[in-house]
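[Protein data]
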Amino acid sequence: MKKSERTRQFIVEKTAPIFNVKGYAGTSIADMTEATGLTKGSIYGNFANKDEVALAAFEHNWQRVKTMVRVEMDKRTTSKDKLLALVDVYQDLQSHDFPQGGCPLLNTAVEADGTHPDLREKAMDAFNGWLKNIVTVIETAVAAGEFRASVDAEQTALTLIALIEGGLMISQLTGNVGHRIAVMPAVEKTILDLT
């Protein structure tokens, strides 16, 4: 890895938590220089502008979430158990490498809606990728006879994501992790009812 690539990676790793906590609008260049120990010129010598840093920070944060979920899913053998890994992950975020500040998809989708088209597009791509992955797991389960043939994979995937993200949002809004945890049995029931 070239020095410039290492510097870019360093900037992203140090600023990603700030963007996820404070959001795009709330993150200042002073926040970025303080987190990295670099000057404004050094940051903007590696990134064209704050937008470029924010996009890279979102990708970094979302990749952490995807990796966390994938690691847990890969420990399971059946498709049903792979979906139930979602419950395990989102029930106990402290035991996993979940980004500081909450779900980057939720945070970015809410903030970028109508105000930052590039971030909105990144969030949309992340959502679509997550949806596609869950749909694939459900379709695999249907094909293997684990789930009923009548299961609508896309509608079920949307429901699972909505329950998880809704629990995260309410928990973040109220500052009460119990709300997120309280939603997880509904996620589990939705999955178990597919058989």
About this structure: The first helix runs from residue 3 to 26. The CA atoms of residues 167 and 173 lie 10 Å apart. The chain has one domain: 3-192. The domain at 3-192 is CATH 1.10.357.10 (Tetracycline Repressor; domain 2).
